[in-house]
Design goal:
heterodimer, A: about 500 residues, Arc Repressor Mutant, subunit A, 3 domains, ten-stranded mixed sheet, 17 helices, elongated, B: about 475 residues, alpha/beta, eleven-stranded mixed sheet, 15 helices, 11 strands
Chain lengths: ~500, ~475
């Protein structure tokens, strides 16, 4: 596979400067400024009221849950939380905007500063061993503010329609500093951001569903130059991998242009995923003047009178800390820790499974290698997490061997019940009774005089024929370690 | 005597004793309307059948059971028109009740008529209505004031018992003064604005227009109080606003702001106000001269902040979802431009353009943000004045009702009509206007009493005492 750098014809002379603006829909019971249910889907225009339709005379009332979740997000990224935040009106006309102004935050956002640490395992697979992944860079955030989402337009042949169900959904805008340098980092930034958002249960952050949307600002400059080049804004990025592809293309385009001596236009470009290219949408000469001013319908938000402390109580164990703990205490690999941290439901399942055994790393192997391949839903699966603890103990402590373990796992998937019971049912329980094994060994010695002779003559491999006899006689259930010991004792007697 | 001539308080007593029925009041009002509405044109819409039907169902045991109230045409009442006297809302029917309307309904009131106004409450004469001018019942060649001119003319002209208006810079008090009725602009946050079509959100306040101060207090009690739908409403519990029915002004410190008594002001107005202040003094109040030094900046500050907010508030009228839509637009921009240029009148356009300008990049610091700072100073003016006195006494309007058409070509002169009322909206304080005399040509003159924030009880008690000691409120317009 071609590397990003090769695709961008990086000769080492150029570097890209990338900043992201990420919009994240908050998962709340109701919309940002009214009592309508905040839910994806639903019949068109069924989740609306005078407020989110912007009818004359309606007024907004701020959603405390959304404010709390935004503060929580800020706390998780180490932002400064404003003691008093304010809402502003951002003015522009568009049919998907019911009031033709959006209630947003300008001068006094809820959160400022903070950073997102790049998780090496959230780089693209082909870059996880690269230096940029291993660098574990931290990307600074400028701010996080809260606003209302707009409606959704649909364009038909002759007409357009608008579904206002989405209008008024609480939306966080997370703005990064221009700290990112490569498409891989942008990819890892979004993944790492998403991982934390999921951990805090603030959003489902699914880019395909539009719950997380990303605009990219990118420019190029000669390595070593301090000043930024002319930036281009990229829009229509619908997946994390799409962001990477768009950046690879756009950076290559910009480098090629400046190498030819052409100036980069300050413009907004649209990524076309099918064409694999960006196209001019609008140039910045027509830039909007949003005429921000304080929203007179809303009082300033005091976060220092209970909202912040409520958010503090719901700060979860963050992915980085969780990974550290799983590696140190449970002995899972860094990769496994990262997979678990990225999927809180699976992680909860794993932690329950591991609780019942001291073989916690083995449980991680069963769950992440075998169980995950069956694409389970940890919330609804009939396979109790305790079963994996049991299975790991059975294999590690010699009840069954690992090949038998696989059989038990297959049976577990088909007929979920306790692995111990399955071992019985499959007749897999090893014979570890010294008396019974002694009888098998005596039979083997009596039936194989040649091998006995060879062994005693110094051909130690000859014992294998005797072991094979015992295994056959016992239908594979004899504990091989014990058989070995008993045979050796009897032969040297 | 026609029931149309009685006060709300008196009708309430007679209704609850079952001496009269709500339908009797509605019928009498409809008779008066039939006789004079053609001349006055106080209403933009009257649904006789619906009002009579509501009167039949009225429950006289409720606080306002069966009392008909007229609503300014910018208050949403479920199923009724709500045009804001604008072509852009032609045919629009309100899909919900404003909180103020719902509270009146809950108290048993019924609604009779939507009253005319300056388009989107922008004006001081009701001449900016797209639905025709309203005439002053005291002299039909003159304006009723505005923007709640329809409400004031209806109450003064005995076409309504009481009405609701809205006041952004004087739009309840100035028409009340010019029509000789009582108009109360409560403290910002006292009454929910939910369902009032916004002109300037930080200045707008709903209030009653009535024949008497007692009627005003009765309606305020029904309207006031926190509303979970309006984030800017105050959390305090509604009170009784007229707890001492006899009323006295003894010991009251009445402030006379020197900036409100200017050389060259209308002589008859000045004389009436001076004599009102003397009455307060004679009855045991002390007069204190105070200063509100930033008053000269108030009109400029107001026309920057109010228009800035209006430019955003009126952006929603775009022809996309409701109201007027341009026919066969060729694209989106054409839809916006034609809908808005055909739908809005000249004063509304002027203010949207002004408001857009003062918020624009490069100008917002010099205009919008500077005006916000001066607004803070105006607020401090009032706070420091109220450390020296309990109430401020001023004229409501610099002069009585002026002739129709006199100022329509001169917006700046029109803006001066609100010179004494605008500051209280900027500061957020409550204020009342009540009749305090008549000119030689029999035009009403209004007295304004301004209170500290949430000082409505003080305002109403003093206004009530003054009113009951005079008979200005009993005078009937000649029409």
């Amino acid at each position: 596979m071609e590397t990003d750098a090769a695709a961008m014809s990086f000769s080492g002379n150029w570097e890209a400067v990338i900043g992201l603006e990420v919009h994240v829909q908050l998962r709340t019971r109701t919309k940002m400024f009214c009592g309508c249910v905040n839910q994806y889907g639903g019949a068109m225009n069924s989740q609306v009221c005078p407020v989110c339709l912007g009818l004359p005379g309606s007024l907004p009332v701020p959603n405390e849950e959304a404010i709390r979740k935004t503060i929580l997000t800020g706390l998780m990224f180490g932002c400064r939380i404003a003691p008093v935040a304010r809402f502003d009106r951002k003015n522009y006309f568009y049919p998907d905007m019911p009031k033709n102004y959006q209630i947003s935050q300008f001068d006094d956002p809820l959160c400022a500063g903070g950073a997102v640490g790049l998780d090496p395992f959230l780089f693209p697979k082909d870059l996880q061993e690269s230096d940029e992944a291993k660098a574990r860079r931290s990307i600074r955030l400028t701010r996080i503010h809260l606003e209302e989402d707009v409606a959704k337009s649909f364009h038909y042949e002759e007409r357009s329609g608008i579904d206002f169900n989405r209008a008024g959904t609480p939306l966080m805008e997370i703005v990064s500093e221009a700290d990112l340098r490569t498409p891989g980092e942008a990819f890892a930034f979004l993944g790492s951001l998403r991982q934390v958002l999921l951990a805090g249960d603030v959003s489902d952050a699914d880019m395909e569903k539009g719950q997380m949307r990303c605009d990219v600002n990118v420019s190029v400059r000669p390595v070593g130059q301090k000043e930024f080049g002319t930036k281009v804004e990229l829009k229509n990025l619908n997946s994390i991998s799409g962001v990477r592809r768009a950046l690879v293309y756009e950076i290559a385009r910009q480098i090629a242009a400046v190498e030819k001596g052409n100036a980069i236009q300050h413009e907004t470009r649209r990524w076309d995923d099918e064409a694999g290219a960006t196209f001019t949408m609008r140039t910045k000469e027509k830039a909007h003047d949003y005429r921000y001013f304080p929203e007179p319908d809303l009082l300033p938000v005091r976060t220092d009178q209970g909202l912040r402390s409520a958010a503090e109580k719901s700060v979860p164990e963050l992915p980085a800390a969780l990974q550290d703990r799983l590696m140190k205490e449970n002995g899972v690999t860094a990769y496994q820790a990262s997979v678990l941290a990225a999927d809180r439901a699976l992680c909860g399942y794993y932690e329950k499974a591991a609780a019942g055994t001291k073989h916690k790393a083995a449980v991680a192997n069963w769950i992440l290698n075998d169980f995950l391949a069956t694409q389970p839903d940890p919330a609804t699966t009939p396979i109790k997490p305790e079963y994996f603890g049991e299975l790991a103990t059975l294999v590690a402590e010699g009840g069954i061997n690992s090949a038998q373990g696989k059989k038990v796992f297959a049976e577990l998937m088909a007929n979920p019940s306790s692995p111990k019971a399955l071992v019985e049912k499959l007749g897999l329980a090893q014979i570890s009774d010294a008396g019974a094994l002694g009888v098998f060994c005596d039979e083997a010695i009596a039936a194989n005089p040649r091998s006995v002779e060879d062994y005693r003559a110094g051909k130690s491999n000859a014992i294998n024929a005797l072991k094979g006899f015992v295994m056959k006689k016992s239908q594979g259930k004899a504990n091989p370690t014990q058989v070995d010991e008993i045979l050796k004792a009897k032969l040297s007697a | 005597m026609s029931l149309a001539h009685e006060t709300l308080a008196s009708l309430r007593r007679r209704l609850s004793s079952k001496e009269i029925h709500s339908r009797d009041i509605v019928k009498d009002l409809l008779t008066e309307i039939g006789a004079r509405e053609k001349t006055v044109h106080a209403f933009t819409h009257i649904d006789e059948k619906a009002s009579l039907a509501a009167a039949e169902k009225a429950d006289p045991s409720l606080p306002l059971g069966g009392i008909p109230i007229a609503l300014k045409d910018n208050l949403n009442a479920l199923g009724d028109p709500c045009t804001c006297s604008s072509k852009i809302l032609e045919g629009y029917r309100a899909p919900y009740d404003a909180t103020a309307v719902a509270r009146l309904r809950h108290a048993g009131a019924i609604f009779l008529g939507r009253t005319n106004m300056d388009e989107f409450a922008m004006g001081s004469s009701t001449e900016n209505s797209a639905l025709g001018v309203t005439r002053n019942p005291w002299d039909p060649t003159r304006i009723p004031g505005g923007s709640s001119g329809g409400s004031a003319a209806a109450v003064a002209g005995r076409l309504a018992i009481a009405a609701l208006g809205s006041d952004t810079g004087g739009s309840i008090r100035q028409p009340a003064a010019l029509c000789g009725c009582v108009g109360l602009k409560p403290t910002f946050g006292r009454i929910s604005r939910y369902g009032l079509v916004a002109f300037a959100s930080s200045l707008d306040q709903i209030g009653p227009l009535t024949r008497t101060v007692e009627d005003s207090a009765i309606l305020l009690s029904a309207l006031a109080g926190h509303d979970p739908r309006d984030n800017t409403t105050d959390l305090r519990k509604p009170e009784t606003f007229l707890s001492k029915p006899e009323g006295s002004v003894k010991g009251l410190r009445v402030g006379l702001p020197k900036e409100y008594f200017l050389p060259g002001m209308n002589a008859e107005t000045e004389a009436a106000i001076r004599s009102a202040s003397q009455w307060f003094e004679k009855n045991g109040a002390t007069l204190v001269e105070v200063s509100l030094p930033h008053t000269p900046a108030a009109i400029a500050v107001y026309y920057i902040l109010a228009t800035a907010e209006a430019s955003a508030n009126l952006a929603r009228f775009d022809g996309v979802r409701y109201g007027r839509r341009a026919v066969d637009p060729k694209d989106l921009l054409d839809l916006y431009q034609r809908t808005r240029s055909e739908g809005f009148g000249p004063e509304v356009k002027r203010r949207i353009i002004l408001g857009t300008f003062v918020l624009s990049q490069g100008y917002a610091d010099a205009y919008y943000r500077k005006a916000q700072k001066v607004r803070g100073l105006l607020r401090q003016d009032f706070e420091s004045a109220f450390t020296k006195c309990d109430l401020l006494l001023t004229p409501t309007s610099p002069e009585p009702a002026f002739p129709l058409g006199e100022r329509t070509q001169d917006p700046l002169k029109m803006y001066l009509a609100d010179v004494f009322t605008i500051s209280t909206n900027l500061a957020g304080n409550g204020a009342i206007s009540l009749p305090c005399g008549f000119t030689k040509s029999n035009l009403p003159i209004g007295l304004q009493l301004i209170g500290p924030r949430f000082g409505e009880e003080k305002i109403l008690q003093a206004a009530h005492a003054y009113e009951q000691a005079h008979d200005f409120w009993k005078r009937m317009p000649p029409l």
